[in-house]
Design a protein that fits this description.
- By secondary structure, the protein is mostly helical.
- The protein has helices at residues 8-22, 34-47, 51-67, 71-80; strands at 26-27, 31-32.
- Strand 1 and strand 2 (31-32) form a beta hairpin.
- The longest helix has 17 residues, at 51-67.
- The chain is elongated.
Length: 83
């Protein structure tokens, strides 16, 4: 007989979430580091955007940089302006 816990996956997910919280990471749309959370809060405060708007607009900016051949420039700016 193969016996297993029916809630084994839920327990694994809970342990994963607990480990992320212990590291100081917070789930927004995935777990982010404290530095990334600081940046997220700064964007949210300055723009008044919701979580969905921040995600959508960041994808638009990235796609626009890609279409214009400016990904390298965007990456350099992000590195130079990193907190």
């Amino acid at each position: 007989m193969n016996k297993f816990k029916p809630n084994a996956n839920a327990e694994k997910q809970k342990r994963f979430r607990d480990r992320q919280k212990e590291k100081g990471n917070k789930q927004v749309r995935g777990y982010v580091t404290p530095n990334a959370k600081f940046c997220y809060n700064e964007i949210s405060e300055k723009t008044g955007w919701t979580d969905s708007e921040i995600l959508s607009n960041s994808l638009r900016i990235t796609y626009a940089a890609y279409k214009c051949g400016q990904i390298k420039l965007l990456n350099e700016w992000l590195k130079d302006n990193n907190n």
